[in-house]
Each structure stands twice: as structure tokens, then as C-alpha cells.
Design brief:
The complex is a heterodimer. By secondary structure, chain A is an alpha/beta fold. Chain A has a domain of 145 residues: Rossmann fold, CATH 3.40.50. Helices cover 49% and strands 9% of the residues of chain A. Chain B is α/β, with parallel strands linked by helices. Chain B folds into two domains: 233 residues, Rossmann fold, CATH 3.40.50; 159 residues, Rossmann fold, CATH 3.40.50.11890. Chain B has a four-stranded parallel beta sheet with strand order 2-1-3-4, sandwiched between helices. A four-stranded parallel beta sheet of chain B has the order 6-5-7-8, sandwiched between helices. The relative contact order of chain B is 0.13. The chains are: A alpha/beta, B alpha/beta.
């Protein structure tokens, strides 16, 4: 398969709503269960070890018209909450047995309640990930929380899950995350050979298919990428920050590069990449996952680690990538991203690193104003 | 015409909003503010903490003065001082879509409000009790960054099942011990469990009074408005809980309200509609908003906002015999913000039924998505599934730019006209 064909395969898979993907998979796996994972981070290993299929449930983008959900959530609530609910109202989550939420923001928290009330047959679970990772108690707590979730999943699938099952799942997802790290490392070195939109499609596909078939697809993509050729242009090299939950439309990602940027790193779909290195498999698996969450997670607006400010994480990312600037891409009304921008901005200005804020909505379909803003930003840097 | 005359009379009845409880509450809150200002000058230790399900009793056990940025922010709004502070915060990068409570507080900080020249001390500790609302974490992270004070985030697992698990309780208690160690370091004092027990006994006494006062609103007419007048009790129960003054405040408030019930007195000349109100009030237009209901003789007999700090109506009290465990229980279970939206539906339903309300009023505010996100679904549930007439209006609790008086009046008038019609037809 050519690289382009692989990207198109990802695009085609992402065009199908999660309920449909789940139904197809369940037809091929009688008795199987499928669980939707609302952003950002889900311990996929627990779902996988239970023999269920984890799928990303992250809004409907431009594919869904709001007919019911906007009467449940106000105009000042982010789009992803509304389109996710709308997918449910339109039956496009049918096929999923459950949806997992966790403590990313106040809207997601309330969305989990609204989903539970409106879809009483759906298994809706809420995971509280610790926000005091500096405390010695956090790992014990998280291990217990994972045990609680696992017990709920065992109840859903109807059989116990062993440590061996979990270890195998950790290995499978280590493999997937390792491949994604290689993809990102490739782009950081050769952004002219892998566009932001292509990278996003390849990454998003992780949430739309089983790890067993995603891994080989991504391996093939990496091989095909190695044969790509191209000429590096004179562009501004940026890190994209702030789009960790609701995902920007592909058209916007294309515009960023057309306007004169190379994106060396980003936090798109960060929850499906999450760990900076492999989760160990030589100890108790739930403990290992809990410790990895504390000690091996990428910094994120939805994970607070008082041992290291997030702004420091961003500065390190910029330096590691050798980026010239930061492009903030918060989703409209996304409070975690909008709050963090203040501290990020302070740190970047202290370090003399240029930055630009471009708010987006997943349902956005015209980008001319954004193109103009980014072009102006790029010109101010290139011709300064 | 008769209706209009009655409405005018109702508005004139504003004198009923005040009284001894209001005056005593005001005096206590002024004394707290004066102590804050004094500590700003002397440098004696203080700590910022959130209202929702907090562990203020531990700070008191070390004589650490508690600062409540939410209370400071609402006071700025009610005095109509919030907008310039919000704008100041927006100048340093806060979005117009960020919580305006945070912006007003940070704007105040950036204007020199915290520190020796201001009215609030620079905290010795930024203690974030993360109780359900993610914005708390962001707010206190920013406070710590701007004040350079040490930050401790007391992470409270969200109430995911009917009861918290033993692991949830153990996690919170272990963190409370870490907070105690921090306080020992700040003050140089050894932790005294007996002192904490004394403080918790004061808390429990005040909570008992709070509950008795709110129970009295089951009377017809209710002796006070459990939304607008609750603020007189919310100050003491939240800001001063654990002090003798707070316990005595409630010791005095309850008989006053009992007397009103015995005499058949309420806050308005006539109680024509009994409501339950959900959501915080628009503080920049507090009186104006209140009068839109008063003119219809609408009295809130219960409110969810008054339970942000703690839900005591259903039996919980701080327990001196289980000091840290009962503090943990309150933080985990017995406050509005750490419970799910569906738990809130249940709480409101209990209020509507137990306090025999005619309607539910939802004031949806942009600033606080914890409160507001999904309130359309709440309206759907109460109107369609329970048949409770429900009004949903929108503005903000801090930012005056989101309050549209004419639109608000139209919606409220239309709602009560329909409710009145229904009442008449039902006779």
C-alpha cells in the first residue's frame, strides 16, 4: 500500500460513526462489547483486556447537524459535548455498549450525566483520575480506581480479567503508542514529508479500529514514509498546543501549513498517545498503569502535576523540536485550554517565543479569516 | 390593574428582606474582611480555599485565616466593581469565555489587591480543595503562580457511585494529613486534635441551625427567601463555619425565623408562588433580579446554590468523634459540586416535593459550566417527566455584560403569567 492509500484508508474509517464501527466489529466478534472513550485519556488496556473494543467518541465534527442536543446544552458550551450527545440522539452510537468519561472538565462531567439519563441502556462510567499527582497517595488511589473500573467492565463482559490479560493489553498498546511516537519523531525531523493533516488522520485512526489491525497499518505507513521525498521550504516551524480534546477540522490543519507553517509537534489526540515511554509489564499491571500515569504521562491541560508546571512542559517541547513559535489552537469554549493559555503565554513571553491564538470549532468549515491571521503571523516572523 | 397594584405593593415590601439576621451577617462578614485586611499588613498566616466542600476547620485549628476568593469576587460584583477587574484579567490573556469569578479575582490581584497595600493578604498557602469543579484547579494554579505562594491541590474523587469507596475516603484522609503537615510547617505549631474537635463541634452546631432555618421554609409563607436571603446565612456557614460566632449566629437566627413562622410573616407582603431556584444569582444585578420575582409574589423556598458549601438538609453533620473522616465525608459527598448532575436532579426533586414548590427556576450562568452545562436537559426532565413548570433564564454571576434586563423581565413575566393562569384554571 502506498502512503497516500494508507492515509485514505484512515480517512474512510474515520468517516464511519463509532456505533457503526462497533456494530461491524461485533458482528465479526460474537459476544464482543464495544466501549466509546470520550477524550482525553482512557486506560484502553482495561477495556482491551476485557476483550472489548475501545473506540474514540469525540464529537461529530461537520458530519452531524444539531437537532436535539442544543436544547440540552447552552450556546456557550463547546461543540464536542453537543455533537457527541447528538450522535446518541440520532442513533449513531448504537452498537456501542458503553461510553467512558473522566475528569477533564466540568462540561464532560455533566455530559456523562446527560448521556446516562437519555440513554439508560448505555453503560456510562466516569473515571476520576487523580489531580494531586504529587501526593504519595495518588498511585494507591488510582490503582484502586482502575480496579473499580475493571470490576465494572468484568460485569459488562461477563467474565473475569486476569493480570496476564492486562499485561498482554499493555504490550499491545505500548506497541501502538511506540509506533505513534515514531510517526511524531519522523515529522519533527521531516515536516515537509508528513503534513499535519496526514499525521492527524493517521493518529485519529487509532480511535476507529482495533489495535491489532491499526498497528500493522501504521507500521506500513512508517515504511512508506521512509521512501517519500521532498524539498524543505522556508516556513515557520511551530508547535501546536491546545487541541487535546475537540479535534480541529482537517481543513483548518491544512490551512495552517498552507499559510506558511511546518508543525513539528502537537497535542492532537494526545490521549491516544499519552505516555512518553512504555508502561512496564514486569509488575502488577494496574499498579504499573497507575504509576505510568503519574510518572510517564505527557503534560496536558487536563492532568495537573504540581511537581512540574505545564508551561515548563511546553517550553521543553518547543526547545526539543527546535520550533520558532507556538500556535495555540483551543476549541471554542474549552475552559482548560483557555485557562492554560494565560500561563503558557506568560512563560513564552518570558522566553521570547512568539505565539498566536486561533480558536476553532470542529464544525467550522470556512477558514479564510484564520488563513489571513496565520499568514500575517508567519510574515511577521519571516520578514522581521 | 389590580395585579399591577399588588405587584407595586410587593416591590415596596422590600423592607422584609432585611432584619436582624441580615444585620448580624453583615457585621460578621465585615469583621472577617477586616481580619483579612489586618493580616495583609501583619503577615500573619492566611490561606486561600474554596467554598465547596472544604476543610476550613483544619486551617482554623492552626489559626490560619481562611480567604475565599469566590466570596471576594461576589462582593466585588454586588458592589458593581467587577467589570474593570474582569477587563484587566482579559488584558493578560484570559478569554471572554473563561469564568468571570476567576477573572475578577485575578484582576484584583493584578491591581495590587493581595499584599500589604491591598485588602487581602498574600496567602501563605494556596489550598485548592478540588471538589468536582475543574475550574477550581485552574484558578488556584493561577493564584499560586501570581502570588508565588505554595500550592496544594486536595484532590477529592468525584462521587461516582451512591457512596464513596473506602479507597476514596483513604485517599482524602491521607491528603488531609499532608495538609496538616503543611500547616504545621507554615505556623510552627503542632497539630492539636482536641482543638479540631472543638472547632468541628461549632461547625455541627451551626449546621444544625442552618438546617432548622431551611426547614422553616416549608411553612406557608416561608419566613425568608431561601435563594436571595440565604446569602445572609451562606456567609456565616461557609466563611465562618467552625467558629463560636458562627454557631451563635445560627442560635439567634433560628428563633427569629420561628417567630416569623408563628406570626405568618414572610419576606413579601404576600407569598403567591413558591419556587425552587437552581444556579447562582447574577450578583451584579442582585436586587434588580430579585425584584423581578418579588413583583409576582414569588418566594424561593429552597435553592441548590445555598448548598454549594455543604448539603446538611439530609442529615450530615461534622462529627468531632470522627474528625478527619467526617471532614472527608463532607468533601466527598455532602456538597453540591462533587455530585453528579443527576444527583442534583434528585436534590431538586426532593426540594420541589418536600417544600411544596409551584415551579423550578433555573438561572443559567455562563461563568460556571459545572452549574450550567446540561441545564437544558434538567429543564426537559422537570417539565416533561415530572410536570414541574420550569423557567430557564441566562446571564452571569459576575460579569455584568451578560445581564439583559428587558429580556429577563419578559421571560419572567411570561412565565408567571402562565403560572398564574394555570393556578386560576386549576381552582
Amino acid at each position: 500500500m502506498t502512503f497516500e492509500a494508507i492515509v485514505e484508508e484512515c480517512r474512510a474509517r474515520l468517516a464511519r460513526p463509532p456505533g457503526e464501527v462497533a456494530a461491524t466489529w461485533k458482528a465479526e466478534h460474537p459476544g464482543g462489547r464495544a466501549i466509546g472513550c470520550f477524550p482525553v485519556y482512557t486506560p484502553l488496556e482495561l477495556i482491551h483486556a476485557a476483550g472489548a473494543l475501545p473506540l474514540a467518541v469525540a464529537g461529530g465534527g461537520t458530519t452531524v447537524e444539531l437537532t436535539h442536543a442544543d436544547s440540552r446544552f447552552q450556546s456557550f458550551v463547546c461543540s464536542i459535548a453537543k455533537t457527541t450527545l447528538e450522535l446518541g440522539f440520532q442513533g449513531r452510537l448504537a452498537g456501542l455498549d458503553g461510553v467512558l468519561f473522566h475528569s477533564i472538565c466540568d462540561v464532560a462531567r455533566n455530559l456523562s450525566s446527560v448521556m446516562r439519563r437519555n440513554f439508560p441502556d448505555l453503560f456510562v462510567e466516569y473515571l476520576h483520575l487523580p489531580q494531586n499527582t504529587a501526593s504519595e497517595a495518588a498511585v494507591d488511589y488510582l490503582e484502586a480506581e482502575y480496579r473499580r473500573l475493571l470490576a465494572r467492565l468484568e460485569g459488562l463482559v461477563g467474565h473475569p480479567v486476569t493480570d496476564d490479560d492486562l499485561a498482554r493489553s499493555i504490550l499491545a498498546h505500548n506497541w501502538r503508542r511506540g509506533l505513534l511516537r515514531r510517526l511524531y519523531a519522523f515529522r519533527a525531523q521531516a515536516p515537509h514529508l508528513l503534513s499535519l493533516a496526514e499525521c492527524a488522520l493517521l493518529t485519529r485512526a487509532a480511535g476507529a479500529m482495533p489495535v491489532e489491525s491499526y498497528g500493522p497499518l501504521l507500521e506500513a505507513a512508517l515504511v512508506a514514509l521512509g521512501a517519500r521525498e521532498g524539498r524543505l521550504k522556508d516556513r515557520v516551524r511551530v508547535v501546536v498546543e491546545g487541541a487535546f480534546c475537540e479535534q480541529p477540522p482537517l481543513g483548518l490543519l491544512e490551512v495552517i501549513e498552507e499559510a506558511g507553517c511546518y508543525v513539528l509537534d502537537d497535542d492532537l489526540m494526545t490521549g491516544w498517545r499519552w505516555f512518553t515511554e512504555d508502561v512496564p509489564v514486569d509488575g502488577a499491571p494496574l499498579r504499573a498503569l497507575a504509576e505510568a500515569y503519574r510518572d510517564r504521562s505527557e503534560y496536558s491541560s487536563i492532568r495537573h502535576d504540581w511537581r512540574k508546571p505545564k508551561a515548563q512542559g511546553l517550553l521543553e517541547k518547543v526547545r526539543r523540536a527546535g520550533a520558532d513559535a507556538v500556535l495555540f489552537l483551543p476549541a471554542k469554549f474549552c475552559e482548560p485550554a483557555l485557562f492554560d493559555y494565560v500561563l503558557y503565554r506568560e512563560a513564552l513571553e518570558r522566553e521570547g517565543i512568539p505565539h498566536l491564538v486561533v480558536e476553532f470549532e470542529e464544525k467550522q468549515w470556512t477558514f479564510e479569516r484564520t488563513r489571513n491571521e496565520i499568514e500575517t503571523f508567519v510574515e511577521s516572523l519571516l520578514f522581521d | 390593574m389590580a395585579e399591577a397594584a399588588k405587584a407595586t405593593q410587593a416591590v415596596k415590601g422590600e423592607h422584609g428582606y432585611h432584619g436582624n439576621v441580615h444585620e448580624r451577617s453583615k457585621a460578621l462578614m465585615e469583621a472577617w474582611a477586616a481580619e483579612s485586611a489586618r493580616r495583609a499588613r501583619t503577615g500573619e498566616p492566611s490561606a486561600t480555599i474554596m467554598i465547596s466542600g472544604n476543610c476550613v476547620e483544619i486551617l482554623r485549628a492552626f489559626d490560619i485565616h481562611p480567604l475565599f476568593p469566590e466570596v471576594s469576587a461576589l462582593q466585588m460584583a454586588i458592589r458593581k466593581q467587577s467589570l474593570p477587574l474582569i477587563l484587566k484579567a482579559e488584558q493578560v490573556g484570559y478569554s471572554s469565555d473563561n469564568c468571570a469569578y476567576v477573572k475578577a479575582d485575578i484582576g484584583y490581584l493584578l491591581s495590587g489587591g493581595y499584599g500589604p497595600e491591598g485588602t487581602l493578604p498574600r496567602p501563605a498557602l494556596v489550598l485548592c480543595n478540588y471538589v468536582g469543579r475543574n475550574v477550581y484547579v485552574k484558578w488556584f494554579e493561577h493564584l499560586a503562580e501570581f502570588t508565588k505562594a505554595p500550592l496544594y491541590v486536595l484532590d477529592i474523587p468525584f462521587l461516582r457511585e451512591a457512596r464513596p469507596s473506602p479507597d476514596d475516603v483513604a485517599y482524602v484522609v491521607r491528603q488531609l494529613r499532608e495538609v496538616i503537615a503543611l500547616c504545621e510547617g507554615i505556623t510552627g505549631k503542632r497539630f492539636d486534635i482536641d482543638r479540631l474537635r472543638e472547632i468541628l463541634a461549632y461547625s455541627a452546631r451551626a449546621e444544625e441551625g442552618w438546617v432548622r432555618a431551611k426547614e422553616l421554609c416549608k411553612a406557608h409563607p416561608a419566613p425568608f427567601d431561601a435563594y436571595f436571603d440565604s446569602i445572609n446565612m451562606m456567609g456565616p456557614i461557609n466563611v465562618l463555619r467552625g467558629t463560636r460566632e458562627c454557631a451563635e449566629f445560627f442560635d439567634a437566627a433560628v428563633p427569629e425565623y420561628e417567630g416569623m413562622v408563628a406570626r405568618g410573616e414572610g419576606p413579601l407582603p404576600e407569598e403567591r408562588f413558591r419556587t425552587v431556584v437552581e444556579g447562582p444569582p447574577p450578583y451584579p444585578y442582585y436586587r434588580s433580579f430579585r425584584n423581578l420575582f418579588a413583583k409576582w409574589g414569588a418566594v424561593a423556598v429552597q435553592s441548590t446554590y445555598s448548598t454549594v458549601g455543604g448539603i446538611w438538609e439530609f442529615g450530615f453533620r461534622h462529627d468531632p468523634e470522627r474528625p478527619l473522616e467526617s471532614i472527608a465525608e463532607q468533601m466527598l459527598v455532602q456538597n453540591l459540586t462533587n455530585r453528579s448532575l443527576l444527583d442534583r436532579y434528585g436534590q431538586i426533586r426532593a426540594y420541589v416535593e418536600g417544600w411544596r414548590a409551584d415551579a423550578l427556576v433555573i438561572h443559567s450562568i455562563k461563568s460556571c459550566r459545572l452549574f450550567s452545562a446540561g441545564q437544558g436537559d434538567m429543564r426537559e426532565y422537570f417539565t416533561k417527566e415530572l410536570g414541574v413548570p420550569t423557567l430557564l433564564v441566562e446571564s452571569d454571576l459576575e460579569d455584568p455584560r451578560y445581564y439583559a434586563e428587558a429580556q429577563m423581565r419578559n421571560r419572567i413575566d411570561a412565565f408567571f403569567e402562565a403560572l398564574e393562569h394555570k393556578k386560576v384554571m386549576g381552582r
